[in-house]
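tl;dr need the bound structure. longer version: we got a ligand (magnesium ion) that a collaborator sent over and nobodys looked at where it sits. i said id run it. heres the input, straight from their email, havent touched it
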Amino acid sequence: MNERLIELKNVTKSYGRVFAVGGIDLHVDRGEVVGLLGDNGAGKSTLIKILAGAIPPTSGDILVRGVRVAHWDAARSRDAGIETVFQDRALAVQQSIVRNIFMGREITTWLGFLDVRKQRDEAERLMREIGFTSKVFNPESIVGQLSGGERQGVAIARAIYNKADLIVLDEPTTALSLTETEKVFRFVRTVRAGGRSILFIGHNIHHVYDIADRFVVIDRGRVALQATKAEVGSAEKLIAFMERIAHPQGTAGVAA
Ligand SMILES: Nc1ncnc2c1ncn2[C@@H]1O[C@H](COP(=O)(O)OP(=O)(O)OP(=O)(O)O)[C@@H](O)[C@H]1O
Ligand SMILES: [Mg+2]
């Protein structure tokens, strides 16, 4: 039996009379990578903001390891082991890797001073844990000098330091080259091998197909498809499905 980490049941979010999310069931099990797909405005960001506790759902239940959590908010989300790497405000690029990993949760000595040595060792351990294998790796490197994929690695390392069981990545490969995307994939696979879970939001269906074990496609605030990679069969089939929900009238008669 898969260990259920988090589950949303019939979750909605409305703004006035508009439903950004209209009754979604979604779960993530331990040690799996779930790909969240959907067109612009489908409700992906709204959904992950709800998961992060950044906005309250209008209705519905959120269960952590099978137990419903009342008054869901950012603190409860963090307690549940959910860490979200938001696309735009992920890192302080003028700061070092170490500063970024420990920002707000610095390791100090018993006198309250920054424990520079311990932070550096811990940063090295975390970067190894996610599969960051650069020979020239230096925890004091400035994040702005790292490549795009490596920056995602720093954000993932920080999430792990913050005891994440579920790391939510919002379009982590959108601006990246193939080589950099491969780096992010390596981090994701290493993190999964360590028993953690990833919710991977993406626009590039090939990227999401490659990395995810299971897919959830959102269409206008509702789940249009929930299927494992084996059930879907190929990236082309997933793309065809996405095209059908984007242009339903143009494909009448095509079986789902
Ligand atoms: N604060 C808000 N007030 C009113 N409507 C909102 C608000 N936030 C989101 N919406 C609406 O909810 C719907 C879902 O938006 P959301 O940002 O979740 O989509 P998305 O799937 O993340 O899209 P994208 O791929 O463009 O990032 C959209 O129609 C959007 O206009
Ligand atoms: Mg979005």
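gonna send this back to them w/ a short note. The longest helix spans residues 178-193.
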